[in-house]
Design brief:
The structure is a homodimer. The first copy, chain A, is an alpha+beta fold. Helices cover 28% and strands 29% of the residues of chain A. Chain A binds a DNA duplex through α6.
DNA sequence: AAAATAGTGTCTATGAGACACTATAGT
DNA sequence: ACTATAGTGTCTCATAGACACTATTTT
């Protein structure tokens, strides 16, 4: 036995005396496909909200970090076992956001090159779709459509979570090199510009974009060029310094 | 009875079947005093970590939003009942960050003018201090000292939380008008510049700072001037719009 | 050769830093 | 009158947009 009051207190501490919320992790996985931003969703196979589209998500286990939960739900709900770039986004806490009980969601943001996840998405066992992201409305909710432009509704407050993710990515673009997560190893300056334009939803000036990127020191020229493009081929670049 | 499977599922849902973490809210309240950035701390009166300095914090109640919890802990732990500017910062989840049990902390950031909280801090019943913020180390932890420059240690992972808060405020400065929370209703351009310099920890160019601020449209001239300053008095401005 | 995009060079507009100069308070 | 800071005007430099022009590939 010890006379340390801190140790004695810890030994007697009973967390069940206090009310605790459930804590979930939802992942907004963004990618680029056919010139547009996409978000990976799955159709919920079970209650609650069965049959509705939702973000891959699941409850935190007590021996897991939030990032580990995020990686686990991507594997379980979307079949994605790739090592993806992931960061915490925000915690959503509206008391009525889940009808079961009080559930906080610590939303995470992930970015990935389409080619890296296409095989996993194609295997239909998880009923996963990559919905088109059409923008963010005045209330901060994402506007999503299917392949034909028909609006898609999301379960829970997931449209709000996706909206927050899009806003975050746009803001990060000019101080963090997030765009490289969406590209392959090698890319042309035009492809890099198209990534920026797609994320921002605006057109950028070609000349100053070239200068900014080349002057930034974040690009390393490979000396090789793209092939088979019907016009003068552009030089291929890699991200410099990981 | 209803045949709706969703309603039946919800009626039978038992959250206690799943393990849940405790969820706390910690508030990083920053202010400016004597030319330096300060963070409001209190000395913990009870176990765990009794006697150590910590952020005002407390457990989320299930009928509360996170912001409501943040306001409540500021009142309970620091005696601050003022209506403060508050926003969510990030959720801290290291499994060993609290020795009692798994505790997630949804940290919040608050900014306030020193004059608004000085009276509450002066009433010593909450053992509250405004520690000097000396910067952020390479690991992202805040460096704090007392009035005499002696380093202060914080309980739990609170130095990391404060470090994250400082980094966030610095980043917000050039796209959100956070600096006005730290000033009184009326202020001179010099005072505004000193707020920016204190937050950023750097010196700014006077001429271009003036131009930037006046051109930004965020300032409204009052036509009045400061008084009793021993030199030409500067014009007083207010924040425009809101 | 035509079409299409890559890539270079240069002019211009804008914003930041530097600095000189004038203005106005207290002492 | 002196000191200290407010505030204005202007020059220079760096960066972004605009545009003309050359280069290199496929068809």
């Amino acid at each position: 036995m010890t006379a340390d009051p801190e140790a004695a207190y810890l030994a007697e501490y009973d967390p069940s005396r206090y009310e605790r919320p459930s804590v979930a992790v939802d992942v907004v996985l963004l990618t680029l496909h056919e010139g547009g931003l996409r978000v990976v969703l799955h159709r919920r196979p079970a209650l609650p909200a069965a049959g509705q589209l939702a973000l891959p998500g699941g409850f935190l286990h007590l021996d897991e970090t939030l990032l580990a939960t995020a990686r686990r739900v991507l594997a379980e709900k979307a079949g994605l076992t790739e090592e993806l770039w992931l960061e915490q986004l925000a915690t959503f806490d509206a008391p009525d956001r889940d009808r079961r009980t009080r559930v906080l969601s610590v939303a995470h943001l992930a970015l990935v090159n389409w080619a890296r996840i296409r095989p996993a998405l194609a295997s239909a066992e998880h009923a996963v779709v990559a919905a088109r992201l059409r923008g963010v409305d005045d209330a901060g909710r994402a506007l999503l459509t299917d392949e034909h432009g028909a609006p898609l509704a999301l379960a829970f407050d997931h449209a709000e979570i996706v909206g927050t993710a899009v806003t975050r990515v746009r803001g990060k673009l000019d101080y963090a090199p997030v765009e490289f997560q969406l590209l392959g190893e090698e890319f042309t300056l035009r492809a890099l510009q198209e990534v920026h334009e797609t994320i921002l939803g605006t057109r950028l000036n070609k000349d100053s974009f070239r200068r900014r990127m080349l002057d930034s020191g974040r690009l390393a020229a490979t000396g090789r060029r793209e092939e088979g493009v019907g016009h003068r081929p552009a030089e291929l670049f890699r991200r410099r310094g990981v």
